[in-house]
Specification:
The protein is an alpha+beta fold. The protein is 46% helix and 11% strand. A 4-stranded mixed β-sheet has the order 1-2-3-4, sandwiched between helices.
Length: 153
């Protein structure tokens, strides 16, 4: 990953990061976070929505939830890591690195969504902050999309 980021940075280099900061960032889980995937997982179970798999292998981007029969991929994007326009932000220290990193993540999200749609999947993406106050709407969108996808097959 560092090679890809270096290509985006002026001069192809970024400052070394302190060991404590590096350890802190490394400890942040990429999946199974309480504020993202687990919150939606519990809501799906409570709503009686079944037929999904968690983070299946073999698909672009490894969706957080896959409804294979309905060909629906669902992603829950963390506001920080995916550069949410509402509440995401880049740290002020090492800003060149973080801006490149977050831009790369956003660009990859667009490519993954396109690849899945080209493969015949419907794709839903939700921001982390949406899970806090908009869960009924999120569940409605998932149910509606599942119904639409069922009509297509």
């Amino acid at each position: 990953m560092e090679k890809a980021l270096r290509k985006q940075l002026p001069g192809g280099a970024f400052d070394d990061v302190s060991s404590p900061r590096s350890n802190t960032m490394r400890a942040i889980r990429g999946w199974g976070n309480r504020s993202t995937e687990l919150r939606l997982r519990f809501a799906l179970v409570r709503a009686g929505i079944s037929g999904w798999q968690l983070r299946p292998n073999g698909l672009p981007g490894r969706p957080d939830f896959l409804f294979a029969d309905a060909r629906l991929a669902v992603f829950v994007d963390g506001c920080f890591w995916h550069a949410c326009p509402r509440c995401g932000h880049a740290p002020k220290t090492r800003s060149e690195y973080w801006n490149a990193k977050l831009r790369r993540n956003s660009d990859r999200d667009v490519l993954v969504t396109g690849a899945l749609r080209n493969a015949g999947y419907a794709v839903l993406r939700f921001w982390e902050h949406e899970l806090l106050g908009q869960m009924p709407e999120i569940l409605r969108r998932i149910k509606t999309t599942l119904g639409r996808q069922a009509l297509r097959s």
